[in-house]
Each structure stands twice: as structure tokens, then as C-alpha cells.
Amino acid sequence: MIRFTKVSKYFGKEPVVTDIDLHIDKGELAYITGPSGAGKTTLLKLIYMAERPEKGEISVSKWDLRKIRQRRIPYLRRDIGIVFQDFKLLFNKTVFENIALAQKIRGVKPDSLRENVDRILTDVGLAHKSGSFPEHLSGGEQQKIAIARAMVSKPLILLADEPTGNLDHASAKTILSLFKEFNARGTTILIATHNSALFTDTGRKVIYLKDGKIEKETTG
Ligand SMILES: Nc1ncnc2c1ncn2[C@@H]1O[C@H](COP(=O)(O)OP(=O)(O)OP(=O)(O)O)[C@@H](O)[C@H]1O
Ligand SMILES: [Mg+2]
Fold this sequence. Notes:
Number of strands: 10
Bound molecules: adenosine-5'-triphosphate, magnesium ion
CATH class of the domain at 1-76 and 192-220: Alpha Beta
Strand order of the largest sheet: 6-7-8-3-9-10
Strand content: 25-35%
CATH superfamily of the domain at 1-76 and 192-220: P-loop containing nucleotide triphosphate hydrolases
Largest sheet: 6 strands, mixed
Structural class: alpha/beta
Order of helices and strands: EEEHEEHEHHHEHEEE
Number of helices: 6
């Protein structure tokens, strides 16, 4: 589903990720870990083409990112749900509107849009917060809204960047069980985190990044 072959990305002359080979199969739930600055966010950005590599090949779903035309990039992004490290919720819009926006952009009709948003809010346990504004939600609730927004259009792939960053252990566990559930329903998931508690004893693939290189790949 996601394949990197000898991928390198530079910012100026500085290599940020170097010579990355990785492969995430359809249906996997895998982790990328490593210290701050290791290149985790950059690696995710390469997948949804917010950054382009200087070297190597990347394929995502049916797309060869070297060959994809500019006007096709939105179609690639329709296959990918993204939970950003800083959420990127719109604070002047309600929870409902935040999630609905992703559907509107895709031209989903109002009736199905409402149904889809209500369903995903129920899935993450926040149907009662539909009319609230993000600033009135706790960090864990905001994180769940960010996940709901990424998942409402049922993407093939979910990328989650430090999805439990500011959460306590119990909230982090709730978020993880949501990911497991979406994964069980068929979404391929890649989670970037420096928090090893998330993947310890999961039996899932863990890719260790250090200074932009893959240090090792193990099972958590
Ligand atoms: N647009 C950019 N221009 C220049 N340097 C950048 C840019 N984006 C990231 N970097 C640098 O690339 C390196 C990797 O950054 P990245 O955000 O990918 O790390 P990370 O592993 O996600 O870290 P964290 O755990 O803190 O989120 C850092 O040294 C960062 O300063
Ligand atoms: Mg990061």
C-alpha cells in the first residue's frame, strides 16, 4: 500500500531522511518511531506529497508519486486521511462543520453528509459534542475530532502524527482502540510517535528512525 525505495529528502544541503526503504502492506497497522527531529513528520509528508523527495521512488496505493500529475494530487489525497501533529481544527467552526468540510470538498450531498458526520461522531463517542466549538473540548476530545475528520470519508490509508502527544494514559488507550477498530474495518494505518508505550506488546511492525535513517524494524 505504501512503498519507499531508496528515498532521500533534503532541506537545502541538509539530508532529513536518507535512503529510506520501507513497505507497509494493505491492512497493516504500523508505527514509525524515533527521537524528535528524526524525520517522522517529514516521512509522512512525503506520503501525501506535502514534500517531494530529491531521490528515490514512492508509491502509495495505485499512485507512483514520481509520475503523478499535479492535477491528480487531490485524488491521491482522497485515499489518505491525515491526523496532524497539531490537529489543525478550525476554531471558528463547530465540531460538525469541521468534519463536514472534508465531505463538502468531495461534493458529498447534504443528506449523506449529515449521515456520515453523525456516524463518525458516534464511532468516536462524541455525538453529543456535534454543536460545540473545538476550544471547549479537552485535548483528548479534540484529538478524537481530528481522527473523525480524517476518517469520515473512509480513506484507504490513515496517517496519524503523534496522535497521543498530550494525552494521559487512559485517553491514549482510547485513541489506540479507535485506530484498531478502523484498522479492523480495512484501513491501512501508519502512526508516527516517540511514545514507545503505544506499540510495546502490540505485535505490530515498528520502524525506528534515527537522524533520518532507518535504524531497525522490529515487532512491537
Ligand atoms: N520545511 C523545513 N525546512 C527545513 N528544515 C525542516 C523542514 N521541516 C523539517 N525540517 C527539519 O527536518 C528534521 C526532521 O523534522 P521532522 O519534523 O520530520 O521530525 P520529527 O521526527 O517529526 O520530530 P518531532 O518528534 O519533534 O515531531 C528537523 O531537523 C527539522 O528541523
Ligand atoms: Mg513530527
